[in-house]
Amino acid sequence: MKMFVVVLVLLQVSQHALGVEVYEGVESVLLPCQVNTSVSTVVWSREDLPHFTVHLRDESSDIYEDQNHYYWSRTSMRVDALQTGDLSLTLRKPTIRDSGKYLCTVRKFGQDQIRTGVQLLVTEPPVWPWVLAASLVLLVLLVAVGVIVYKNYIVTVTEGVKSVLLPFKTTANLAGDVTVKWRCLGASYKTVHVFGKGLNNEFKKHSSYRGRTEMKKDPLETGDLSLILKNPVCEDTGVYTCIIYRDGDILAQKTLKLLVKRTALVC
After folding, report:
1. Which of 180, 214, 185 is nearest to 199 (CA)?
2. Residue 63 falls in which region: left (phi positive, over 0), alpha (psi -120 to 50) or beta
3. Taking the model in full, what pTM does it have?
4. How far apart are CA 97 and CA 25, in angstroms?
5. Which of 48, 195, 227, 249 would be a feasible disulfide site paired with 166, CB 3.0-4.6 Å?
6. Any transmembrane segments, and where (predicted)?
């Protein structure tokens, strides 16, 4: 009975000041959006991918013509959403690629009236809950595997070192006009590094990361998109996501956590 309770708790969606966090593999996740005014149209979109239409609803029905194909058959809203002001979006079968900042834009008579941002973070489920259902021998083996996986997705470093490497290697096809974006969800949403043809990388970065990030040589040819962060400080602690996209389509994505410690103490 105890094992059953633990698994249920792990599958719950947690909401906090920064947004919504959920494990990959859950049935659905709710992105909240509430307004206290009459609405004629609501548009859900992605801030990091401005040309994405995630979901569109007007006074008559849902409109799917402009919806990005990645979200086909995976989004829905309440039937009475525009009447009640509950414009929350249900996203089915969320994956790590769905992580990002979603915008709920309310329109009235063709004019944008209200815009609400919801940060969604989809992470891989931990290994250890499933170990509870295994035998004693499998328990030892799976715990060992769980520790390896855990370490692969959490990078720990002490403040004062010259640099830290956030690893990411991919086998995705990176030919063509590809953009690579590293971002951080810490105390706020920040762009850490941008790589692509014709992009002013330093201009696009958050000021706290300017002059402190770089990638290895020829990342699109080698598939090694790892990020080097120089002179890491406690304020750099957070969840880092690397997104690779081309023509509005996400090709690959990785999320990991950076923990910067001050000497022997965590910042």
Report:
1. 180
2. beta
3. 0.48
4. 12
5. 227
6. 127-150
